[in-house]
Amino acid sequence: MTRARFDVTASPPAPLETEGAPPEPTDDLTTDERWLPPRGPHLPDALGVLPLAAWIFVVLAVARLAWGLREADFGAVVDPWRVGQVVLFGMPSAVSILLPAALLTRHRDAPSRLRAVFIGVVLLASVEGLRLLGTPLEPFFEWLTPGDEAATFLVPSALAYQVVLNLTGAGAVAAVSLGLTRERRFADRSSSWPVSAVLAVLVVLVAVTGIGSVSRLSYEQLPLTPTVVAYIVTTVVLNVVSAASFGYLTATTTAGMRAGEDPARGWRFGALGAWLVIGSLATLGALGLVPSTPDSASLLGNVFLLIQGVFAVGFLALLGGFALGLPRLDPIADEDDGGASDADEEDARHDAGVEVGTPDPSSG
Questions:
Q1: Using alpha carbons only, how large is the chain's radius of gyration in Å?
Q2: Which residues of the chain carry a pLDDT beneath 70?
Q3: By 3-state DSSP, what share of the chain in percent is helix, strand and coil, each rounded to 5?
């Protein structure tokens, strides 16, 4: 019997060329480089590469913190605890200025594709910058509209300036919420009403505590002149409007998180930050109703710092949500992609036995 013999030293035959087959990977690529996961064109490869516009907001945020430290009165000896307090109180403002930087870093086409979100974060950053001008503009406001004789610290033009800034800030948060709502892909869950109920309670709590704080003012030391009344009313109304805008943001991010929107971590961070912010606003309002005594002053001060820290963490979480790519955008399709999709659909219909050129029954 003759046994077949195989030459194992011979080189393997060349592979057959198949029409339409993808090209073979070259040898100069490593295994990890061959199978990198695809990424959309709107997400950069690394967060460290910031566009020029993002760097502008980063510089402004650092300048905001530096301005706060410069305006603080540290005395002859700089106390690290005092420095930490100044940074803590200035953190929400600085983070608000960083929001456009995070958005532009993850979505460089945000001005055209995320117009509402982009306008909202830019307005919010602008408001925080304009707040710093309030102190240098005080002499101008006093010259423009002198303060009330009964309450010299209340200058009508300065009060109007703060009202405009607060309303603009609330509108900016609402614009961000509206933009995020438009970019959602999935419907809300049927059990979303408990979240709305809790948020409504928090907003009402802010309103009630604001009214309660006003009712405790000493009207003998602060007479009810038109300027004082305007100050009291606007303070209560603006607190409610601010809480309502963050309530809208909380409802939007929570609904997106529960519906499974992408990126999941971005929606989680956004929801966490929004809940911390509105919860801190409601808790600060309730804390204002607690009477302060010499024995409880130290404890109340520490509780106030704790709530302020939670408030700052909430803004940091919102920043983290945008840094993680919130919200997700679909890649922009090229013209060639549409042709390829039409060809694939034609092939699928041909395989299904439908004669080419006949109308698709599902197209209506």
A1: 30
A2: 1-48, 190, 217-222, 332-364
A3: 65, 0, 35
In 3D, which of 150, 157, 147, 292 has the Cα closest to residue 213?
292
Question: ∠318-323-328 over CA atoms, to 5°?
Answer: 95
Contacts 24+ apart (CB under 8 A), 37-43: 40/329, 40/330, 40/331, 41/331, 41/332, 42/106, 42/107, 42/108, 42/109, 42/113, 42/329, 42/331, 42/332, 43/106, 43/107, 43/325
Q: CA–CA separation, 194 vs 320, rounded Å? A: 26
Note whether 318 and 99 are within 8 A (CB): yes
Between CA 273 and CA 310 the distance in angstroms is: 9
Work out the burial of residue 129: count CB atoms within 10 Å of its CB; fewer than 13 is exposed, 13-18 middle, 19 or more buried. Answer: middle
Predicted confidence at residue 165, as pLDDT, reads 95
Q: What is the per-residue pLDDT across 53-65, written as a single tens digit (0 to 9) for each?
A: 999 999 999 999 9
The per-type count for the chain, helices as H runs and strands as E runs, is: 12, 0
**pLDDT > 70 fraction of the chain, expressed in percent and rounded:** 75
pLDDT reported for residue 353: 52
- DSSP for 66-108 reads HHHHHHS---SS--HHHHHHHHHHHHHHHHHHHHHHHHHHH-T
Residue 252, SS3 per DSSP:
helix
Total-model pTM:
0.77
Residue count of the chain: 364
Contact status, residue 321 vs residue 266, Cβ threshold 8 Å: yes
